[in-house]
Immunoglobulin domain-containing protein (Nesidiocoris tenuis), 272 residues
Amino acid sequence: MEDPGGWCLRDVVMWAPEMVRAGTTLQLGCDYDLEGSALYSIKFYQGDQEFYRYVPKEAPPTRVFALPGIQVDVYQSNSTVVTLNNVQKEMTGSYKCEVSADAPFFHTAIRSSNLVVIEKPVTVPEILVEKLKYSLGEKIRANCTSRSSYPAANLTFYVNNVPLRSSDLTKLYWYVKSERGGLETSLLELETSAVPSMFVEGRFRLRCIATQYTLYRKAADVWLQEDMPQLAHVLGPSNPNPDLAESSSSQVHRHSELLNFFVLVTFLYGQR
């Protein structure tokens, strides 16, 4: 019977990290105040399945119940803490501790906590864009991919360190694809328009950041340029040396006359 307000069992609190990396060691704990009474037992559960029990009056006081993927380190576990080695993503879920005071009342309290075991992405995020130069008003389309993680990484696009949000100008579409082994690939598509405020000295940085809680954060960058029209020379290039220009014109005229002479000779010779 649960009696969190019982006079001999107070302040029961379960503590556990919100998230932990796969392959590391995890400690789950349960603090309590028996107000001078004796402890009868403390039990830890994954979901509704018990995997660790501590009963001071038994010898030995610790008992472990086999569950897939759970490796209890008995030497680092006691009446308040259970230590788990080499945690894997399959251990993500809800955990509970159950504390019971000894006779005569056997007051019992149960507390729970949720845990996520993360697998970081196999690579840093990748950005793909249609091209690297854009005219003002032109559509910019890009996507960012973070591959094979658990859970799927959160993705955010930035323009010059300013995060992009969905609006009338900007559209964002997020997709998650299931992979083998329970992993997930995250994809974020971006569609926006090139506006003057984006460009600093004719270019801007498009950045994508992938995160998993506070345990993983990686970024990818690509620099995009403004495609500015080139001004054509309407009157042609000016020549600072008019004498040289006249000389060149004369040479061209003489070459033209000489070419016409050879054409005429060739024609007359062919008539013979």
